[in-house]
């Protein structure tokens, strides 16, 4: 139990905040839907329920992925967060389908709903909370990639560096971006329906919200399917390659691979050195490079192999090294 508590403390904080906030929002929207029967409110209730459940699993998965390697699982549990996220998007997919189905039914058989002030008030309250969660997710993205920003720069740079964020943070960011957009869309639909009598507009808003949810499902599924398989991190390969080549004793890089598993990076490196160096000198080079590479954010292990210098350049900046033969 003590180990579990320590792991939970390492869980993704954005996901935990999003879970709590979306649970509150889902309850408020559910109560409003019970009293008003508004289909746009139903869509938003389903959306928030899906987000709350989803982000709870994300928090648990991100925490458990920090578990130390064991004899049975010597490579650790880094990919566990990807597996959990693949399961989590199924929940969003089901909610998205129900949202679209209900919206389509409302377009075919539009029914006037009551409680205009209740609907608008609850949706506005939810929108404010969702904007807050989105802002926290934006800050978390920038924190994870080590970028400073303030004011409008937070919004702009968080989109620019989203691809470098951890899987859990990326999911929270995307879900709350859709949640914020969906909440605004729902408010617009409720206002138009109330003042114009165009009842089917609420059904159309429900379908659009469902389609946005499916966008998140597709994006997150593709990202985490690649993470489960184990994908190369080309940007980090370039960064580590430049760091290694700055060492005066490294003549060339024969092979360099950085595999991303969940939030962890595994580095495999084969370098060329002067064949006249002693084993002790080569060992010093290895220790020096391992220390520098391990200092990079996210790197959990480094494997270094040596080859003698062949006077043929294999690695150049911006180009992946040729596999060693």
Number of domains: 2
What's the CATH first level of the largest domain? Mainly Alpha
CATH topology of the largest domain: Alpha-lytic protease prodomain-like
Report strand %: 5-15%
Can you identify the CATH superfamily of the largest domain? Cation efflux protein transmembrane domain
Number of strands: 4
Strand order of the largest sheet: 1-2-3-4
> Could you estimate the helical fraction of the residues in percent?
55-70%
Low-pLDDT runs of 5+ residues are none
Q: What distance separates the N and C termini? A: 49 Å
Along the chain, the helix and strand elements come as HHHHHHHHEHEEHE
**Which CATH architecture of the largest domain would you pick?**
Up-down Bundle
How many alpha or pi helices?
A: 10
Q: Which word captures the global form?
A: elongated
Instruction: Report the sheet with the most strands, covering strand number, pairing sense and barrel closure.
Output: 4 strands, mixed
Set out the fold topology.
Elements lengths: L1 H8 L3 H24 L2 H26 L15 H29 L7 H30 L6 H9 L6 H30 L3 H30 L1 E2 L1 H12 L6 E10 L2 E10 L5 H16 L4 E10 L17
Parallel strand pairs: 3-4
Antiparallel strand pairs: 1-2, 2-3
């Amino acid at each position: 139990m003590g180990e579990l508590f320590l792991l939970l403390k390492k869980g993704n904080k954005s996901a935990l905040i999003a879970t709590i906030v979306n649970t509150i929002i889902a309850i408020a929207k559910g109560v409003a839907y019970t009293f008003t029967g508004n289909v746009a409110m139903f869509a938003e209730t389903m959306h928030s329920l899906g987000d709350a459940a989803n982000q709870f699993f994300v928090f648990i998965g991100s925490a458990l992925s920090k578990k130390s390697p064991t004899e049975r699982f010597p490579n650790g549990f880094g990919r566990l967060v990807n597996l959990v996220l693949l399961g989590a998007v199924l929940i969003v997919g089901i909610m998205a389908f129900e949202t679209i189905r209900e919206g389509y039914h409302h377009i075919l058989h539009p029914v006037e709903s009551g409680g205009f002030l209740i609907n608008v008030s609850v949706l506005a309250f939810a929108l404010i909370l969702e904007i807050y969660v989105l802002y926290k997710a934006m800050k978390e993205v920038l924190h994870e990639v080590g970028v400073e920003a303030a004011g409008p720069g937070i919004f702009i740079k968080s989109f620019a560096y989203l691809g470098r964020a951890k899987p859990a943070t990326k999911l929270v960011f995307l879900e709350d971006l859709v949640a914020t957009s969906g909440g605004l869309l729902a408010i617009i639909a409720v206002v138009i329906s109330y003042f114009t009598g165009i009842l089917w507009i609420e059904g159309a808003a429900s379908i659009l919200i469902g389609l946005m949810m499916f966008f998140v499902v597709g994006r997150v599924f593709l990202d985490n399917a690649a993470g489960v398989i184990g994908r190369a991190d080309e940007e980090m390969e370039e960064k580590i390659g430049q760091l290694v080549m700055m060492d005066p004793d490294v003549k060339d890089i024969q092979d360099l691979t950085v595999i991303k598993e969940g939030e962890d990076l595994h580095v495999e490196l084969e370098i060329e050195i002067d064949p006249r160096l002693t084993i002790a000198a080569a060992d010093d080079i290895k220790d020096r490079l391992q220390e520098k590479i391990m200092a990079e954010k996210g790197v959990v292990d480094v494997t270094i192999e040596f080859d003698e210098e062949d006077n043929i350049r294999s690695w150049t900046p911006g180009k992946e090294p040729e596999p060693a033969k």
